[in-house]
What does this fold into?
Amino acid sequence: MVTFWIPLQHIPEPKKGGTGLLFVDKSHSDFALPYWNAFDSKEYSRLDTRYGSEQMINHHMPLNIGDLTAHAGWTLHCSNENDYDGTSDQQERYALAVSFVDTKAEVRQEAQDIKKLDDAYGGNSKDSLGDNEDRWSFKSWVVEVKPRTYFEHDLVPIVWPTQDLNS
It folds into this structure.
């Protein structure tokens, strides 16, 4: 999986109050972190040593309209609050994230269970491992596909290759 993060506005460099995405170098190879460790586990409190040091956290700013960053889907990343005008008031950051996933990727049963828990708890279930960030991207379609099989769904377009993948 690769994700392109595309700012829809100028993002100043951090010393001028801007922040786009911050990336933790080498974390892309540690895909098990959110799936084997609850978010409040000790593994999250030692991220600075898990991947080397605080120097492992990098950014690619400033970014202008038309720029983008690309990262592997498992890369640990975040963004801090914007403070463009020095008032410490949080300002909105507008961006588009586009992710490309292998067409042979399967949906895990746990993803469907997360959707059911969210429905039961008003979208705020914390009863699972992993990061809640991705739920918004799959919760509208995930229960409509069969887990651990090839699937096609209108909300998950196959853009490459263009021919039928089952033939």
User: Anything to note?
Assistant: The first helix runs from residue 33 to 36. The chain has a mean pLDDT of 75. Residues 44 and 111 are 22 Å apart (CA to CA). The chain is about 15% helix and 15% strand.
